[in-house]
Structure formats: C-alpha cells, structure tokens
Specification:
- The longest helix has 23 residues.
- The chain is globular, with a radius of gyration of 22 Å.
- By secondary structure, it is α/β, with parallel strands linked by helices.
- It has ten helices and eleven strands.
- A hairpin with a 2-residue loop joins strand 8 and strand 9.
- The mean pLDDT is about 90.
- The strands form two sheets. A seven-stranded mixed beta sheet has the order 4-11-6-10-7-8-9, with helices on both faces.
Length: about 325
C-alpha cells in the first residue's frame, strides 16, 4: 500500500525510502480488501486539497462508531518570529475500546512550522502522554493505535533547534493544549456516555505516580457507575487510589489524602475527604453537582508538587445498552 501511494508523489530527493505512513483500524485480524483500496489511491491523490472541506471529508472518512468527525485547527506565533503566523491542524477518530496507548484511535497533526524530526518526536511524546494517553472510555486498549505529527516548514521562519529554547517551550505548550482538546472530543463521543469527567491528581511525588493514580480512578467501573447515579461515593475513589499498581512508596498516605468534587461553573469545591478524614457531605448539593454533564474530581495527595490529569466518562444504563449493542454486532 505504501509503495502505491509513494508512486503518486515523485521524489525530489532521490531517496528510495517510503514517505507514506499506513494507518488502520477496525476488526482485529480481519484482512482488508487490499485491491479495492489500492485501486482508489490515485483517485484520492487527484482529490488532494488544503481546504477545510477536504480536511472535514477525511475526518469523516476515518470514523467507525464515532457519532461526529473530530477536527481542529489553530494559528500561533513564536517568540523568535512574532510576525510569522504558523498553522496547526489535526484530526482523530475513536469512540470505543479507549484506554492509554491511544486505543483504537488514529490521529494526525500537521504544522507548517520548521521542526526537524529529532525534535518532533519528543514534542509529540510529551503532548501525547498528557492527552491521548490520558483518556479512558471502557478501559480496553487496542492493537492499532497511531498518532503522527508532520511538519513541512512551509510558513518559513527559523528552524527549531531545541525543545528547551523559548520557541521549543512555546510549541510544546501549544501542541499539548491542542492534543488535549482534540483527545477530549474522543471522550465526549464515548459510546453511550452521559458525563465528561476530569480527574486531577495534585501534589504527588512524581508525574508518573499522579498519572497512574488518575488512570486507576478513570478505569474503575464502580467510580463510573457512582457518577452516573449522582452518588458522591468517595470511598470508591479512595479504593481506586489505593489499588493503583507500581506507585512509589510514600506517595499515597491516607492521612494526607483529600478528595473533592469541583464544579466547572465556578462554584466552590465540595470537599468529600480532607487529609484522610471524611467530611459531612451535603448529599443534595453533591447530587446537584453530579447532575451536570461536566465534572472535575480533585485528588490531593499532599506528598509532593507534581500533578497529572485524566479524562473519562461514566457508565450508564444507556452506556451499557449502547456499548453492548455496538460491540456485540461489531463484525455484522
């Protein structure tokens, strides 16, 4: 497939290496109708365009159980060249079989900034660790995950020479924010989901520990069902914190751990557990907070200064029915 695509793009460098990335999703182990695909590659090539409609058509084409195409773009400037406007565009797909390592999802991001491959990789790794590898819908990880970042330098400007430079730090922040926004669309499109939840673990001894704990909470079916039931059951959250594997010794200390619900509309947080001691929870207020679609769960470990976030959805009656229907009939 890659060689057929390469043949559409004459190489100006004389290199014999392939310049095509092949991505796939769908039924694991199912052979693709390769001849049908190959025969239409020239047609796709002749339809290439840089218009919004072309991007939108492509985003729609890669959807499977998605209910809407996921596509974003933005412009930005860099400290070294404030008069140069750069562009960043990206698309992704995914709605089920979602947990870290991207999980049945494909993503591609393109920028016209001048960034060499040696810097693109660590930029992408940093961004994905905080976005596509920090989302969960059903806790199931796929075999076919691909996220790619391409830069063609078409906008001109200086070549990025270091991630630690002012330009490197600026691009890293822009790319991380962009991938977070795009990956969160996957969670919002979760098969049958009714809530969009951010779990934010703060004051951890390390980023890795904070992320592992956030992942454990996001993956818990009991936490998910409690959120759907508007039940401020902080014990399930604390339980998920406690059974997180691989956390460094001293990171989780019950007497330092606090758990809160943080409304997204700016109202004061609802404290559920403060330094290991349960609070007298206003159940009516808790149910009111959980009535909304968006929610933040804040976990304060009190053992350091690092933090990490995860984004996930609930398990509901509709979620269970729709999820089972979609995945029971996936091949038929």
């Amino acid at each position: 497939m890659a060689s057929t695509v390469d043949a559409c793009f004459p190489s100006s460098s004389g290199s014999t290496l392939s310049s095509t990335l092949v991505m796939s999703t769908g039924v694991i182990g199912q052979r693709l109708p390769i001849q049908k695909i190959l025969s239409k590659i020239p047609t796709a090539y002749n339809s290439l365009s840089n218009t919004h409609q072309a991007w939108l058509s492509t985003a729609r084409a890669i959807c499977t159980t998605d209910t809407f195409p996921k596509l974003l773009s933005r412009t930005f400037t860099l400290p070294s060249s404030p008069s140069t406007t750069y562009s960043l565009a990206g698309m992704t797909k995914g709605a089920g079989m979602i947990h870290p390592n991207m999980a049945t999802l494909l993503g591609i991001f393109c920028t016209d900034a001048t960034i060499p491959p040696s810097i693109l990789q660590p930029l992408l790794t940093h961004a994905v660790d905080r976005s596509f590898n920090a989302i969960s819908i059903d806790g199931d990880t796929s075999t076919n995950d691909t996220v790619a970042l391409l830069a063609n330098g078409a906008a001109g400007g200086p070549t990025l020479s270091s991630i630690s430079s002012a330009d490197g730090q600026a691009i890293s922040e822009i790319l991380t924010s962009f991938t977070q926004e795009l990956s969160q669309l996957v969670v919002r499109d979760g098969e049958g989901a009714t809530k969009f939840v951010r779990v934010r673990v703060v004051n951890s001894a390390s980023f890795d520990d904070a992320k592992a704990i956030a992942s454990s909470i996001a993956r818990s079916p009991l936490v998910k069902t409690a959120l759907y039931g508007k039940d401020a059951n902080w014990g399930r959250i604390l339980c998920a914190i406690g059974y997180t594997p691989g956390v460094s010794s001293g990171t989780i200390l019950p007497e330092k751990t606090s758990v809160s619900f943080v409304p997204v509309d700016g109202r004061p947080e609802l404290k559920l557990l403060v330094k290991g001691e349960p609070e007298a929870v206003d159940e009516e207020r808790a149910a009111g907070i959980l009535e909304g679609e968006d929610l933040e769960i804040r976990v304060d470990l009190g053992s350091g200064s690092e933090e990490a976030s995860y984004w996930f959805c609930d398990f509901s009656h509709g979620n269970d029915a729709e999820y089972v229907t979609i995945n029971a009939d996936y091949r038929t």
